[in-house]
Amino acid sequence: MAALVQLSGGARSMPDLPSRAEISQYHLPDEARLVGGLIERAIYTEDERRRTKELATRLVQGLQSNEAADAGVDAFMREYGFSTEEGIILMCLAEALLRIPDSATADALIADKIGSGRWEQHLGNSGSLFVNASTWGLLLTGRIVNLGKTDPSDKPTNLINKLVKGASEPVVRQALRHAMRMMGDQFILGRTIQEALKRARAEAPKGYRFSYDMLGEAAMTMPDAERYYARYLGAIEAVARVNGPLFDKHADAIFDRPSVSIKLTALHPRVEPGREELLENELLPRLLDLVRLARDNGLGLTIDAEEQDRLDILLGLFGKLLNDNEFQGWNGLGIAVQAYSKRAIPVLRWLRRLAHQTEKKIPVRLVKGAYWDSEIKWAQEQGLPDYPVFTRKLHTDVSYLACARFLLSDRDAFYAQFATHNAQTLSAIAVAGRDVDFEFQRLHGMGDALYDQVLSDQSIKQPCRIYAPVGEHEDLLAYLVRRLLENGANTSFVNRLSDEELPVDSLVADPVLRAEKERQEPAPEKRPELPRPPALFGEVRRNSLGLALSEIPARDSLLADMGAALREGFNAHPRIAGDDAAYEGSG
Questions:
Q1: Residue-wise pLDDT tens digits, 524-569
Q2: What is 239-286 written as a DSSP string?
């Protein structure tokens, strides 16, 4: 059945979107059973495994022998991962220092965190000048704030003020803020879109494409959303001016062009379950304007992934945009899909149906996912029956390869964009997709040495796009914290690459084979498992059981049960000492 929809361009008839019921059914399934199915989807032939291992080994050995690989953010992450106390200290500082408004609190934080670190352990461990200079600064700062601590009456803020007496602002605080900003600068291409475009020109000759992400999310008010909306409009116009018009009218020509990434939560303060009608009236027109401007200027536009509670909202709005007749014949509207979501494959199945229905090719940026810690904690707080994301990185890796296979299997529905810094994942995709047009993606400031190899390797022959964040430091915080959490963990490829005792075979091991072997082990219970939210407190007590109210079927079921209970009627009366006989029939 066709629906008559009123949008900014007027009323027009459009076919209904494919049902998303299957996606909801996969919200909280049993992880072990789901992984079993994903292993079958991700399995490679013996010949593909051999070629994948050969390519991955070559890439890893190139990284280990390349001094440039031990530089910048990659080197910093390896030295200060979250397996170290100092890495956690830096995380605390990065998360808090840039947004602390008053000097006294900043001084106290610095004295508490930096003074407790054993920075001398990290001196000379890295071959990176950036890392060693940072370590020296942290070491000296730590020693300064520890001076005089033998006097118990001296508060940290008083001590710092004594050491820098006469200065208009404590030198230590100034230095640490500057250090955090330097760390942030490694992750952003520019503070403004103009600065980012200027820096991008240096990378373009290597063959890189760019997707510009104007940092900003979780708008708290409509003025916030209006400011981000204006920033997105300005970014599209600025990128278009530098890159000129699109002369090739073939629908796939858009894939060679720059793109802009947007977040729905930056464009409206109430991107929440149950607000679908409000968002269709207030957010959808803004999205239409951005898509229209990108289309008219020959640029791609990608809707970035966000938290799992917002997935259905995101898909619903994306579907309406792609289904709009105004954008017929244009393949520039893309979406990011998170492989750590248990719903990743159902989401891709839905997108494939949508692509065939609209006769468009959808650019899909496949990522592993950057909200894992938050998703786990939220599920525990809500008392959900299970988690919406995989609890083990191994399972996410398997899911990623299964999703990659799915994307590569339908070149009419998808233009696949694989965002990864893992040499094994990259190699597996390069081997599986040798006859398909797709692209790799990396974050600005990370994976430089890996992808310089990729672009020069004649056996790969696939382009790479840099996901390039743009914004001021006040907008950097959420993005920076996600990158630190994602790449600072000791299970990340970036972190494991620095372990000289780890054999190359371990770095390039096939996660699908490992997961399959684990399933066949006689005693899998020996592996530590994250308890499901209801069992969070172990034998002490059961966690309060909650409802997944972000899902429309769960809300519909709850409302139906409430309605049935109300229709049955009830009596309300007081009970005293367990006796309510005197009140029967009253009320």
A1: 555 668 999 999 999 899 999 999 999 999 999 999 999 998 888 7
A2: HHHHH------SGGGGGGS-EEEE-HHHH-TT--TT-HHHHHHHTHHH
Closest CA to 414 of 462, 465, 355: 355
Instruction: For residue range 233-272, list pLDDT tens digits in order.
Output: 999 999 999 999 988 878 899 999 999 999 999 999 999 9
For residues 128 and 173, state if they share a domain. Answer: yes
Count: domains in the chain: 3
pLDDT at residue 184 in the model: 65
Place of tokens 């593909």: 48
- 59 and 74, same domain (yes or no): no
Given phi > 0 = left and psi -120 to 50 = alpha, else beta, which region is 446? Answer: beta
- What sections of 66-155 are H helices per DSSP? 72-79, 85-96, 103-114, 129-146
Q: Say whether both 201 and 326 belong to one domain.
A: yes
Is residue 530 a part of any domain in this protein? no
Q: Identify whether residues 160 and 82 lie together within a single domain.
A: yes
| CA–CA separation, 90 and 17 (whole Å) | 46
Residues 12, 6: Cα–Cα separation, whole Å: 7
Residue 76 domain boundaries: 67-184
Q: Output the CA torsion 205→258→212→305 (10° steps).
A: -130
Residue 193 domain-assigned?
A: yes
Q: Which residue has the higher pLDDT, 457 or 482?
A: 457
**45 and 150 inside one domain:** no
pLDDT in tens, 31-67: 999 999 999 999 899 999 999 999 999 999 988 887 5
- Residues 57, 117: Cα–Cα separation, whole Å: 36
Closest to 235 (Cα-Cα) out of 200, 202, 259, 254: 259
Largest CA distance in the chain: 89
Residue 10, φ and ψ in degrees, nearest 5: 105, 175
Class of residue 1 by CB neighbours under 10 A (exposed 0-12, middle 13-18, buried 19+): exposed
| Pairing mode of beta strands 362-367, 208-214 | unpaired
- Kindly state the tokens that stand for 488: 């600072």
Q: Phi/psi of residue 259, each to 5°?
A: -140, 170
Q: Which carries the bigger pLDDT value, residue 365 or residue 13? A: 365
Look at residue 503 and tell me if it is in a domain: no
Residue 166 has pLDDT above 50, yes or no: no
Closest to 421 in 3D by CA, of 22, 6, 72: 72
